[in-house]
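pls read this protein:
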Amino acid sequence: MRVWVLVLLGGALLAGCTAAEPTAPPRVAVAAAPTPAPHERWILVRKTQHTLSLIEGQQVVKTYPVVLGKDPYWAKLYQGDHRTPEGEYHIAKKYYHPFWSRFMLLDYPTPANREIYDWSATRNLVPGNGRGAPGPGGAIGIHGTEDEGLNRRGVNWTEGCISLFNADVDELYELVPVGTRVVIER
């Protein structure tokens, strides 16, 4: 899937006309993609369904329950907003984690995420932290949990990551390599 940055404008745009200053922030949208390669293994996270699906081509191999950032509905904009990002990412690194079993780091923020952040920051839509704007954040990943009870109850407790039960993240960790495509949608 390709990720396109859409700039939403407050007024209608006519060909050849100049537009007023955009009033809504751009957003990352996941565009319909051509059929994946028959054996491409990738991950689809559906935030509203609280699921992570491992997909091979177009066939769902396995679906896991997940919990998300404390503000699970909106897309991540800045560090500390407790939101899980939306868009297309890739697993950049995998490692064992002392509290969360396994950690699969995503390549967030992408250039599209940085563009949205910059647009929002120039319009004072990103709160200051006493030393200026906090930045788009980072260290977003897929990991296990230190308290499986929170996951079992469906409590969204992360700072923006995707958390699975430890047995599930251990299994997934072995099934996907670094570079695996991860699509996160609302």
